Amino acid sequence: MDIDLTLHEARVIGTMIEKEITTPEQYPLSLNALTNGCNQKTNREPVLNLDEETVQQTLDSLERKYLVSEKAGYSSRVPKYKHRFCNTEFGPLKFTEQELGIVCVLLLRGPQTPGELRTRTNRLCRFTDVHEVEAVLRRLMERDDGPFVAMLPREAGKRESRYAHLFSGEVRTEDHPSSGPADVAISEDEGMHEIAASISELRREVSQLRGRLERLESRLATGEPD
C-alpha cells in the first residue's frame, strides 16, 4: 500500500466517504460543503477549523495523487469534487460496506476501540455486535493488499485496545492519546449522544437542502436563469 495521507488529506477523504454514504443527493461536494464537513464539531477528532484556501490546497494535493477528481456538473456552475480513494473504477482498492465504515470513522476520528467503532459507524453500516467489528478489523489487518489497520498497545487501565488506520504511515501511540475514561468501553449514554449529534447534523443538512430547493422554485417561477 503506497497511500500516505496528511492529517488534512485524511480529513478530506474521510469527509467525502461519509457524505457519499449518508447524503448521496449532495455528493459530489462543493468546496464550501467539503469545508463545512471537514470542520464539523461532531464526529470529528480532532475538531479542525480549516479555511477554504487550505481545503483547496489539500484537494490539489490529492488530485496530484489521483485520489480526488473534479466533477463539473451540467446543473451547477460550482466545481464539485469526489474521491477516487476506493470502490471506484479508477483504482484497485475495494472495501466491503463494513470495512469502509470502519476506515471512514478511523480517518475522521483517529484510533478507536471496537466498541466505539460499533456505535460510531451506525450511519455508515451495521454491526450486530462488537465481535463482528473485531472480525472485520482482523480482515483489514490481514488482507493481502494491506494491512490497512493496526492494533495499538493496550493502555493501562483499559479493557479494549484501540485500532488505527495505516493510510498515514506507521502509527505512534503517543501521537494519539486516549480521551476516554479508564477501564470502560463506550457507554450507552455516549452512544445516545452520538446518535443525537448525527440527527442534529442531518437536520442541518435537510435545512440547507430545503433552502436550495426554495430558491430554485422561486427562480423557476419567475423565469430567472440559474
Defining key terms:
226 residues; mainly alpha; Arc Repressor Mutant, subunit A; 3 domains; two-stranded antiparallel sheet; 5 strands
Short account of what is shown:
The chain is mainly alpha-helical and 226 residues long. The protein has helices spanning 7-22, 31-38, 52-64, 97-109, 114-120, 130-142, 188-222, and strands at residues 29-30, 68-71, 80-83, 149-151, 163-165.
**CATH domain fold name of the largest domain:** Arc Repressor Mutant, subunit A
Q: What fraction of residues sit in β-strands?
A: 5-15%
Average pLDDT, all residues: 86
N-end to C-end Cα span: 44 Å
Specify the CATH homologous superfamily of the largest domain. Winged helix-like DNA-binding domain superfamily/Winged helix DNA-binding domain
Q: How many strands in all?
A: 5
Question: Which class do the helix and strand fractions yield?
Answer: mainly alpha
Please report the number of helical segments: 7
CATH architecture descriptor of the largest domain: Orthogonal Bundle
Give the H and E element order: HEHHEEHHHEEH
* Biggest sheet: strand arrangement: 1-3-2
Number of domains: 3
- The amount of helix comes to 40-55%
Q: What is the CATH class name of the largest domain?
A: Mainly Alpha
| Largest β-sheet summary | 3 strands, antiparallel
Q: Identify low-pLDDT runs.
A: 181-188
- Work out the radius of gyration: 19 Å
Shape descriptor reads globular
